[in-house]
Amino acid sequence: MPALYARYTVCCQVLLLGGFSGSALAALQPVSDAPLATKESLSCRFNADESTDCSNTLQITILKPLGVEMVSKIDLSYSELDTLEIVTARVVQPDGQSIPLANTQMDTRMYPNPVKGFTSEKQTSLAFPNLKVGSTIEYTARIHYAAIPLIDNLSHFGGLHLRPSAVRYDSYQAEFISERPIQWRAEAMEGFDISSSADKKRVKVSLIGVKYNNLVGELEGSEVRVYPRLQLAASLDIQANFWRLAQRHNEILQAPLPAAMALAVQAVQGKSAPEKVAALMQYIADNYRYLGDWRKTERGYIPFSLAEIAEHGYGDCKDLSSMLVAMLRAADIKAEPAWVHRGTFAPKLLLPGIAAANHEIVRAEVDGRVWWLDPTNPVFMSDFVMPDLQERWALVVSQEGRVRTENIPIQGHSVEGARQRTLKFLSDGSAEISVNAQLVGDRLLALSLGERTNGADNLNTELCAAYGHSVMNCRVERQPIAFLVPDQYQLEVRYQDQRAAIPIAPKKFLIDQRHDEFWDLFSKYLSGRG
């Protein structure tokens, strides 16, 4: 459910390529199954000093037993530079009894550091006691968001993102006030009334009727592409929203390369452009790790200096991308930083605000082709765009400080190249099988990540299971896969398949490939993997 809007930071998680499993019977949940019903009122004022003040009031009624678990504790996270005040918090029981939360039921602490970095987030938690079906929790929170250097507060505000959730909205009111005219764009906001004042300095959003939008039985790893969204900005001009941030990026990139980076660039001189890119990507992978550091300052969008990155030996996406851009430029390859939305799907850019992005990468021109490079990934394949960066917009910063929008094209899905399968059937219906396969593209990248994450032996076991049903005496012959993944990769799998054919009479067998899916599920069940 939306509560206080979250501060966005441009950072990233290591890409995990692989398949997804789960039910494909996604359906809209009927409103009668909703576990919670809420009434929400949000008011935000965008101040002239780029700070923001918001007040959020929620009344959440428990409709089903599941709802008790969902709202027994409410967590509100915010930056250490921000201030949060809980104005009121109480539980109203079905009989009308009102029970205010005691101070001991409200706790504020530093938010735990994420796995891949340091942060200075704080978190206030509200624990609501004696909840039951029919109970209503109510609270009002006020928060002052400190100004972020070089970022327009309206551009930074993420707007409204009402993704599918197990919450029925009986009422929703939001008001945004600014000392400057507010520009706004909306998507899928049917059922909401959106209005602006005559001077455009006030925008109101009101839900008409009741809204419940929740999916059940959804495929794991999938993502809803269209949901109610509202984005705000002070300007529709991309340069007006980004010029200060772009200028700061260029100032960082103009600094001299630290000694170790300069030596790495010197080592690639004389190589072809693709070889230079591969070598510098390898250098970063060998000498720097992905780790974010947001302590003591709000630097969600501003990289460390090149000297600081070299001293740390780590960085998040904006740090490693800045380093890569600087090294590529020193190696005579045109390179520019670019902001994107990384993930399964990138929502369309309603307004050119920084809040739309969650990741920073590199746009490079290599032998007349555009390469989109992500130095945070644990593997690299020349001229291949990672699947979680394909088919989306990118905000690219030129060396002159101009920001433009480009599109990263879809690259398509390639499972494998050539495959040759040789079978020698035996009298008992089993077969000795040899598979020679040539892997390319995203399948090969997934193989590399699988070896890195789970080890070579486990990967070989998975390969055996992938090419047979009831596999025995399986042997895999292949070379280890390093950070630099080749364009194509050869492997051979030899095994005995106990169920290659189905006995139908003495010395007669039926080879029916239509049972492939059945035998695959059955073998996974027998092996404990399904």
Molecular structure report:
The protein has an eight-stranded mixed β-sheet with strand order 6-5-10-3-2-12-15-14, covered by helices on one side. The protein is built from ten helices and 31 strands. Helix 5 runs antiparallel to helix 7 (317-330) and helix 8 packs across helix 9. The model is unreliable at 1-24 (pLDDT under 50). The protein folds into three domains: 30-213 and 223-234, Immunoglobulin-like; 241-408, C8orf32 fold (Roll); 419-526, no CATH class. By secondary structure, it is of the alpha+beta class. The longest helix has 16 residues, at 238-253.
What percent strand?
Answer: 25-35%
Instruction: Give the termini separation.
Output: 34 Å
CATH top-level class of the largest domain: Mainly Beta
Give the total of domains.
3
Shape: globular
CATH topology of the largest domain: Immunoglobulin-like
Radius of gyration: 27 Å
What is the count of DSSP helices, taking H or I runs of 4+ residues?
A: 10
Residue windows where pLDDT falls under 50 for at least 5 positions? 1-24
Helix/strand class: alpha+beta
Strand arrangement within the widest β-sheet reads 6-5-10-3-2-12-15-14
By CATH, the architecture of the largest domain is named Sandwich
The count of β-strands is 31
